[in-house]
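DM from R.C. (forwarded with permission)

"hey, sorry to bug you on a friday — could you get me a structure for this? deadline for the figure draft is monday and I only need the backbone to look sensible"
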Amino acid sequence: MKNFSFFERNQLISDFKNTEFDVLIIGGGITGAGIALDAASRGMKVALIEKNDFASGTSSKSTKLIHGGLRYLRQFDFWLVKEVGTERAIVHKLAPHLVVPEKMILPLIEGGTYGSWLTSVGLKVYDILASVEGEDKRKMLSKKEALEKEPLLPESILNGAGFYAEYRTDDARLTIEIIKTAFNYKAKMLNYIAANDFIYEENRVVGAKVLDVISGEYFQIKSKYVVNAAGPWVDELRQINHSKIGKRLHLTKGVHLVVPFEKLPVKQAVYFDIPDGRMMFAIPRGKVTYFGTTDTNYQENKDAVNTNIVDATYLISAVNNMFPKIHITLDDIQSSWAGLRPLIHEEGKSTSELSRKDEIFVSETELISIAGGKLTGYRKMAERVVDLVAKKYEKRFDKKFDAIKTEKITLCGETFKNIEEVKSYTDAIYNRINEVDFSQKDAEYLVHNYGKQTDVILKKFDEFMDENQEEKLIKAEVWFAINYEMDCNPTDFFMRRTGRLFFDMPSVILYKNLVVQLFKEQFLWDEKTTEMHESELENQIKLATNFF
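My reply, with the result:
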């Protein structure tokens, strides 16, 4: 496994300055990461920059499902259902520990969105379009069967349920692993590098003027083609390029709340009606259950998206309405997150009606921008962008690149053959850590986050002599994140490398001082720098646990 670390940063910046790349990608979310891996694996010289941390925007704030787009059947968007349904299966094969099968129950409620016939036909069409096979095929459940699957459902208004398969993931972890895989294919990639302007030659974009956010240094990156994959910030870069004409982004805000599992002990994920006609998810995950999402227009600061009291009460009310035995209050909320969906604006359509399709815009100066799309469809979005770059490259320079091969490139190095192998490996990890008082859920956390890289972390864990086993594990994870995942600070660690800030807030509160100290020692921070990073972490904890 190659070191991918802050301590290689100076060398990478030197490479940025002294190389003319085939393609420069601006944006380190799932879209940019997917493009980088696709382009690098075809033989292109690739650079990728991200102004914050990798996956810090939309790609750590989604519902964290690799799903087939059942809702798009209601919009008769069969093409999208087919594409993301097929992609769902491919991504699962590439990282079966990280993209985990999750049975979904769709309650049929009196007066609800989906009736029995429509649900049955819809799920059947869904299975056909998404090429669903075996145990994952949909089943229709009677009222009695539905209550056996999920006793918390409202018996008095329940008519039955649809039962089908989706996949759960950690969007930030998936992005990081794609980034690391692209790095193994010689892509040059850095977080905390901001693009401020473009370089032009003969009225063509041939690179970007950038700022190293950490050192404050300005420099240039030259490239034959530049791809704008900045998610919610796509239009800002188009504006700098004077090409924000025609279609534009329409940003909507999605909020999710997290409660301890015992407060909402659903047996599997539930996709259910809200009285206002929308639908939302409740998804169990380790020690917690999370639920969401909202879908509201957003025109405020893109760098400060918060959960407000209206968002929180809306979601709590919806959950309490669907699960009458449950009485969640604001005090039960352990954590939350709010993120933006960069959709394509369509006149006259509400937020829920807007298409989730991606679109590519090419400016007169050859800046290639991509916007819209779904987490599930990241690989196909990358294919369309890289195909376009390759076509332009061949026409201009008479050089051909290989066809797409990411369907066969496993993530995280050595991966698993199937989910059964994941379960066997998880059991083996549990047997290993059970001796020092860790639980099965702890084993699942490690394997679902890191896959077989867990062995590397546990080897480091064994080197520490501390008596506190949880502290040893935290130390090993921090060491791994710093050396192999370009982790630059404690907030990166708790939010995007481990997901603890969302799914295990008690551990963040307990170990935040330890983690800050570990970073201080590794990076040789002075007191001022340490306080800055400490303050940033405290701010993120506040944002996740308070409503404004």
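R.C.: lifesaver. The two ends are 43 Å apart (CA to CA).
me: no worries. Residues 51 and 192 are 4 Å apart (CA to CA).
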